[in-house]
C-alpha cells in the first residue's frame, strides 16, 4: 500500500489509512459491466463469437487500445479495415508490440493491463504473448471467474443484456441457467435512439407497432419490455442516449421520444418497481471504420434529465454522463430531485484525474448519496485493475472530506467509515433493487 498522503492539505494522516483499509476490503456490486455469465457461451462451437470475453488476446483487443494503437502506428501503414480483418491474436500482438514493448505503457488502459498481469502473478515484461496465452488456456473458466472476483473484491457482476443484439437474443430464447455471481439488466437503446429501425424489427418479431406510434404501438412496446423483464429478471432497465437527447417537449404535442419514455420505458420501470438507467453523451460512430473504437462524446443537456425526474418523481433514474462538462450540473440537478442517482465515471471519464475530480465534486454536493463507480469491464480480468484503482481513488476523496470534518470539530468513527464504504460501493445501489439477495 502506498503511503503517499502528501496531497491532503491538513491534519490527520491516520484517518487516510483507516479509510483506505476499510475501502480495500469492502465488497463491491459492479452495477454496469459488459461481462456475461459463462452459461451464455455453453454449447458454443469453436469459432463462434463469445459473449464472455477473457484472457490476454481479448484484453489487448479491447477497444480502448484500438484507437491508442492507431495513434502510434506509422501514418498510412494500416487501415482500420485491414486491422479488423486481422484475427484477434494478431491484433493483440500488434497492440502488445506497439504499446507495451516499444515504449513504456503510460495511458490509463495500458497501466491497467500491467496491473492485471502483475495481480495474476504474471511477469509483465514478456517480449511476446506466448507465455500469457498458455497460462490463460490452462484456466478453468469458473474457477478463474471466482479468482478474478476475489482479487477485485466484486461481490456481484451486473451484466448489460441487449434484446436487440442478434448474438445475445437467441441465447436467452434458448434458456440460460441463472448464475448467482451475475445479475441481468434489460438495455434497449434502439427503442429511443433508432426508433424507426427498432420499430421495423419489433414488427418483424410480431408486435403490432407503427413508426408514428399510432394504434397499439406503445402498448405493444410495453408487451415487448414486459416479456424481456419476465425472461431476464433484471435489476434495472437501461438505455444509452446521445448528447442530443431531448425529453422536454418544445410544442404542445409530446414528441415520439417523450411518448416512448412516458408510455413505455418509465411506465415499465414504475410498474415493475425497477430503476431506469440513462447513460448520456456517447456520440456513436464518429469514425465508423474504427467500429467500437469509433465512438466519441458530446456535452448533453442536464435540463432534459431534470424534466424527466420532475415528471416522474416516483421512479429512480440512475444517471451517468460522458462529458466532463456535465458532471457539476448533474450534481446540482440531483440535489433538486432525490430520484436522480448519479452513478459511475463512465468510459472517457474513467481515468485517474477525472475520477478524482468527479468524486470530489459529488462528495461536496451530494455527501455519500450517489454511486461513485462501475467498471464497464468488457473483458473479465479488467475488473481487477478498474476496481483496484477506483477503490483507492474513492477512498482518498472520502478521507479528504473526513479530514475536513474532523478539522471542523466532529469525530469520524471506524463504524461510520465502514457504513460509508458500504453505502458507496454497494448499498446505494442494492437498497433500491427490490428483492436483492446476496450473491
Ligand atoms: O465503455 C465502453 O466499453 C463503451 O464501449 C460502451 O459500452 C459504453 O460503456 C456503453 O455502455 O455504451
Ligand atoms: Zn458500458
Shape call: globular
The overall number of domains is: 2
- Name the average pLDDT: 95
Order of helices and strands: HEHHHHHHHEHEEHHHEHEEEHEHEHHH
Distance between the termini: 28 Å
Tell me the strand percentage band.
Answer: 5-15%
Q: Which fold name fills CATH's third level, the topology of the largest domain? A: TIM Barrel
Question: What is the CATH class of the largest domain?
Answer: Alpha Beta
Low-confidence stretches: 1-6
Let me know the CATH homologous superfamily of the largest domain.
Answer: Metal-dependent hydrolases
The strand count comes to: 10
Reported for the largest beta sheet, the result is: 5 strands, parallel
The order of strands across the largest sheet is 4-5-6-9-10
Q: How many H/I helices?
A: 18
Measured on Cα atoms, how large is the radius of gyration?
A: 22 Å
What ligands can be seen in this structure? D-arabinaric acid, zinc ion
Layout: helices, strands, pairs:
Layout: H1 13-25, E1 28-30, H2 56-61, H3 63-72, H4 80-85, H5 88-101, H6 108-119, H7 130-137, H8 141-152, E2 154-158, H9 169-174, E3 182-183, E4 186-187, H10 189-193, H11 195-204, H12 217-232, E5 236-241, H13 256-272, E6 275-280, E7 282-283, E8 296-297, H14 302-311, E9 317-321, H15 327-336, E10 340-342, H16 352-366, H17 382-407, H18 414-430
Parallel strand pairs: 1-2, 2-3, 4-5, 5-6, 6-9, 9-10
Antiparallel strand pairs: 7-8
The structure holds D-arabinaric acid and zinc ion (ZN).
Zinc ion is lined by residues 32, 34, 376.
Amino acid at each position: 500500500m502506498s503511503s503517499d498522503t502528501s496531497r491532503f492539505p491538513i491534519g490527520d494522516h491516520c484517518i487516510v489509512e483507516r479509510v483506505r483499509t476499510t475501502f480495500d476490503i469492502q465488497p463491491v456490486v459492479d452495477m454496469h459491466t459488459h461481462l456475461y455469465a459463462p452459461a451464455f457461451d455453453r454449447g458454443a462451437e469453436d469459432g463462434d463469437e463469445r459473449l464472455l470475453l477473457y484472457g490476454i488476446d481479448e484484453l489487448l483487443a479491447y477497444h480502448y487500445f484500438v484507437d491508442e494503437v492507431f495513434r502510434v502506428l506509422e501514418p498510412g501503414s494500416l487501415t482500420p479495415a485491414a486491422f479488423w480483418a486481422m484475427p484477434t491474436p494478431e491484433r493483440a500482438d500488434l497492440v502488445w508490440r506497439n504499446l507495451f514493448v516499444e515504449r513504456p505503457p503510460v495511458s490509463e488502459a495500458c497501466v491497467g493491463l500491467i496491473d492485471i498481469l502483475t495481480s495474476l502473478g504474471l511477469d509483465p515484461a514478456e517480449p511476446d504473448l506466448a507465455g500469457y496465452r498458455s497460462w490463460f488456456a490452462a484456466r478453468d473458466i469458473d474457477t478463474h471467474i471466482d479468482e478474478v472476483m476475489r482479487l477485485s473484491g466484486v461481490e456481484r457482476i451486473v451484466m448489460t443484456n441487449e434484446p436487440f443484439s442478434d448474438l445475445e437474443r437467441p441465447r436467452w430464447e434458448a434458456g440460460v441457467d441463472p448464475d448467482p455471481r451475475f445479475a441481468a439488466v434489460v438495455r434497449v437503446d434502439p427503442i429511443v435512439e433508432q426508433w424507426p429501425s427498432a420499430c421495423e424489427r419489433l414488427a418483424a418479431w410480431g408486435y403490432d407497432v407503427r413508426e408514428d406510434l399510432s394504434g397499439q404501438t406503445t402498448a405493444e412496446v410495453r408487451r415487448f419490455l414486459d416479456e424481456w423483464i419476465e425472461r431476464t429478471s433484471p435489476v434495472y432497465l437501461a438505455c444509452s442516449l446521445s448528447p442530443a437527447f431531448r425529453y422536454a417537449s418544445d410544442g404542445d404535442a409530446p414528441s415520439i421520444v417523450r411518448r416512448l419514455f412516458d408510455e413505455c420505458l418509465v411506465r415499465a420501470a414504475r410498474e415493475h418497481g425497477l430503476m431506469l438507467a440513462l447513460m448520456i453523451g456517447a456520440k456513436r460512430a464518429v469514425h465508423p471504420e474504427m467500429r467500437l473504437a469509433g465512438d466519441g462524446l458530446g456535452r448533453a443537456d442536464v435540463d432534459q434529465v431534470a424534466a424527466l425526474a420532475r415528471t416522474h418523481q416516483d421512479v429512480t433514474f440512475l444517471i451517468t454522463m460522458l462529458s466532463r462538462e456535465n458532471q457539476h450540473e448533474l450534481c446540482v440537478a440531483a440535489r433538486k430531485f432525490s430520484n436522480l442517482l448519479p452513478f459511475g465515471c463512465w468510459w472517457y471519464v474513467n481515468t485517474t484525474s477525472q475520477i478524482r475530480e468527479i468524486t470530489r465534486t459529488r462528495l461536496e454536493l451530494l455527501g455519500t448519496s450517489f454511486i461513485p463507480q462501475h467498471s464497464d469491464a468488457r473483458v473479465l480480468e479488467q475488473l481487477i485493475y478498474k476496481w483496484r484503482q477506483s477503490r483507492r481513488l474513492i477512498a482518498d476523496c472520502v478521507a479528504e472530506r473526513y479530514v475536513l470534518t474532523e478539522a471542523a470539530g466532529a469525530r469520524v468513527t471506524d463504524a461510520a467509515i465502514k457504513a460509508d464504504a458500504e453505502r458507496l460501493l454497494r448499498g446505494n445501489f442494492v437498497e433500491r433493487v427490490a428483492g436483492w439477495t446476496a450473491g
